[in-house]
Amino acid sequence: MDYKDRGNVQQPGVAGSGESTTHRAPAAGPGKRTLTMGVAPASAPIQRKQDNAGSMVAEHELPEEIQETAKSGQPLPDDVRRKMEHAFSADFSAVRIHEGLQAQAVGALAFTRGADIFFAPGQYRPTTTRGQELLGHELAHVKQQAGGAVSQTGKAGGTPINDNPSLERAADEQGIKAAKTPDPLAAGASDREAGARDAGTPDRAAMVAATGSTEEQKPAAGTVTPGKVAGAAASKKIVRIAWTMDDGPTKVTGDMTKKLNGIPATWYVMRNQIEAGGKPAAKLATLKAAQDGGSEIAIHGLHKTESHLAWFPSKAKPSYPSIETALADLEAFCVQLRGVKINPKFVRLPYGELTEMTHMLDKLGMNDAKLRDTVARKILKGESVATDGASAKAAQDAWNKFVAKIAALGLHNWGGAGASSPEISVQSWEAESSGTGLTDDVTSSHGGKVDAKAGKFERLADNVKEGAPRSLVILAHDTAAKNADEVGNDIARIESYATSKQVRLEYYTMSQLFELARGKKP
After folding, report:
1. What's the rounded Cα separation, in Å, for the pair 11 and 70?
2. What DSSP character marks residue 53?
3. Cα separation of 336 and 328, whole Å?
4. pTM of the model
5. How far apart are CA 18 and CA 37, in angstroms?
6. Rg of the chain on CA atoms, in Å
7. For the residues of 446-473, what is the DSSP string, one character each?
8. Where are the domains of the chain?
């Protein structure tokens, strides 16, 4: 069933006035001065005869050099970028670092133009505290320029500048704060390995395929205790199950919880459901209580009033106009949830990543359905689409923005690819339990019928071997009483079949299953 920015950083010149922010080297007096310098036409020379040491500096056609150098540059190191994105709640994937004489030519430690930061020789030290303070200062200017906060306040040597002291104080404060910000992967969890939240790390184990034939999973080092055990509890043949509940919280949530009967679940919630009725605080408190009770809260819908808006633009489904707009709402939703100590770790696109990507390709003008499917799968696997046309490139750019943003927010998208790629499987679930006419393939018996093509759990149980656990992510819909009833029925059938086949059932949240699959926490 098809169910389911670079953020605010702007490229050079997008801010509207072409300003650059210059972090000046300390002058003879105490302290330092930073200015924002508008890039003049390429023919206008910038002259600074003395640098901080008093040496003569050759005349440079600085604006022209800036324009030329900005074509190159290096991205921030992954660990530094992750830390700074966490500190600023921004996406710095577009930022490029340059080292050379441009900054030195104006007696500066560093200056910023759009998403390009220019450092004087020896000043780019991203692994030191002082170096990160300077880098953080310049990244604050990246945000200021992208947000339109920078305008010309005067001229220096004929060059437009901005020397607004309040912007400089803010950048100083933010730079110091950013340098002190802990790496989000290490904070509060000493057993997390660097890069655990990097959505581009191709080391995640494959999960169950749609046929029920899965790759064997090695038990992770350390211990992850299942929330509940059923079936043949003493057996060494193990199937791990994660129940995931979409579309809540609703009036059915309480009944669904009863049907789970102590099984931990991952509740993929909709922001509009939380806001409905004008009492979000009460619903957030209910979700927090579920989290405290051993379940997990994840993100599904982002809009405050609209339900099931596709995150990627679509002409087949209601959707956001751009992925950037969706990601802005994602960040706001994260702030809302984390503000009451609800800690989401996962997202699930309203129509599934494969469907949303094919729909975006369709909207972009790719008319061949077979080609759309092929290209969408390549994008989700991180493969090149350079020869597949402009629509493919635009869709891949949008997907890359999505991947970068969720990584910056400390989130994961379970679906997306396969065994050797960033995520765990093409879709973010492998079986679906529904009592309202949607896909129902957890067991072969459902709704009073027997379907030989269904029964994904049964096929897993038939093929699991001792010492080689298999896993199943099940999607259910927290929307109607029939759905809750079917979940209860599926659980009863699963546990009965497991007992008959001498299979041990272990129930986990998505975070626990992630840790078992990868050997590290999400």
Report:
1. 10
2. T
3. 13
4. 0.60
5. 9
6. 26
7. ETTEE-TT--HHHHHHHH-BTTB-EEEE
8. 19-180, 228-518
Residue 388 one-letter amino acid: D
Alpha carbons within 13 angstroms on the beta-carbon side of residue 232 total 14
Residue type, 503: V
Q: Name the token pair of 322.
A: 């751009």
Among residues 276, 399, 270, which one has the least CA distance to residue 347?
Answer: 270
What gap in Å lies between CA 51 and CA 37, rounded to an integer? 17
Structure tokens at 179: 């340098």
- Local confidence pLDDT in tens for the 522 residues of the chain: 333 422 232 332 323 334 455 554 433 333 333 334 333 333 322 222 223 443 333 334 455 555 555 567 888 888 888 889 888 888 888 889 988 877 776 667 888 888 888 888 888 889 888 899 999 999 998 888 777 666 656 554 445 555 677 888 888 999 999 999 887 665 433 332 323 222 222 222 233 332 233 333 444 445 789 999 999 999 999 999 999 999 999 999 999 999 999 999 999 999 999 999 988 999 999 999 999 999 999 999 999 999 999 999 999 999 999 999 999 999 999 999 999 999 999 999 999 889 999 999 999 999 999 999 999 999 988 889 999 999 999 999 999 999 899 989 999 887 654 433 333 455 678 889 998 888 888 988 876 677 777 889 999 999 999 999 998 999 999 999 999 999 999 999 999 999 999 999 999 999 998 888 777 788
Phi and psi of 159, rounded to 5°?
A: -100, 130
Q: Are strands 96-99 and 116-119 parallel, antiparallel or unpaired?
A: parallel
C-alpha span between 163 and 151 (Å, rounded): 9
Structure tokens at 235: 């057996």
228-518, CATH topology level: TIM Barrel (3.20.20)
3 state DSSP class of 265: strand
Residue 458 identity:
E
First to last CA, the chain: 27
Assign 3-class secondary structure to 423-439: CCECCCCCEEECCCCCC
Q: What share of the chain is helix, strand, coil (3-state, %, to 5)?
A: 35, 20, 45
